[in-house]
Amino acid sequence: MREPDGGVEPDVDGVEQAVSTGLLPGWDEVEQHVGDALERYLPRTSGAVADYIPVLAAADPELFGIAVAEVSGALHSAGDAEAGFSIQSIAKAFVYAMVCDELGHDTVRERVGVNNTGLSFNSVIAIELNNGHPMNPMVNAGALATTALVPGATPAEQWERIRTRLSAFAGRQLELDGQVYHSEMLSNQRNKAIARLLESYGRIDRDPLEITDIYTRQCSLTVTARDIAVMGATLADGGVNPVTGVRVVSPQVCRDTLSVLAATGMYERSGEWLFEIGLPAKSGVSGGIVAIAPGKGAIGTFSPRLDSAGNSVRGQRATAYLSRTLGLNLFASAARPPRTESHR
User: Could you read off the pLDDT of 3-20 as tens digits, one per residue?
Assistant: First the structure.
């Protein structure tokens, strides 16, 4: 159960998890804030579209969509919330959740890890510094190790299991963008090398090139800002999709996934993100960001212009604005009213 360098063993078996959450504002207020976020940040044109994957370089930089999905099933959107884009690294969070659901908390924690590397998402040095341990599932090494754990007798079965389970998170059938997949397969030599390195350390038990192919496919699924908001809201709602009412994963898996996202979801800037915005989140180089408020809902944004860390410029600002105006920051609190005799 421990990480190679030691770790936390909480010793809480049999102790029931208590849950305490607040509520989002009313429908009209959420609608207003979503629209205001779009209007406020639409003029921002800083950043640049990703170009290290050729097909992503052709993305329309002017697209900007925002969606908020509540755990009640209510959906709010503004701008290009129905524009399709490849899910990219956002898939890591949901593949991790499905593997945790299949194999359990301890098995995945020991194999993949939960600690931030402090290095870039595709770092090879991070693997070597930690004796072949990928450290967490949100960097490419950890995502490849997680993908290798997906049950299935063949790569085709593993891939279909991923597509089906991520579709359950979204509440609709997600499809592969073949153009994105083929473009990425021509430029993913580094991921192939990382997979082979993990194999040499015994962290991948299957053919590393087949695992890289499955990983590339999962990154090439087409989603919208609305889709990723619903996917995030499923994690916020204890594993039940708030739109379809279908249980996708267990409440413990949601807790585990959101904990990992809070610590590592925004790579080496995860601490800064949590400090400023206060929500577990995951970004992708196509311009998507999903941020989750447990018990309340999730924000999905899409805008292709990225900063130097590979995160959407508009998406970060819109998420920060909505976190503040909707009262989503996990660490925000206000003084309670003075106690009366009846409260003592």
Answer: 444 555 566 567 676 767
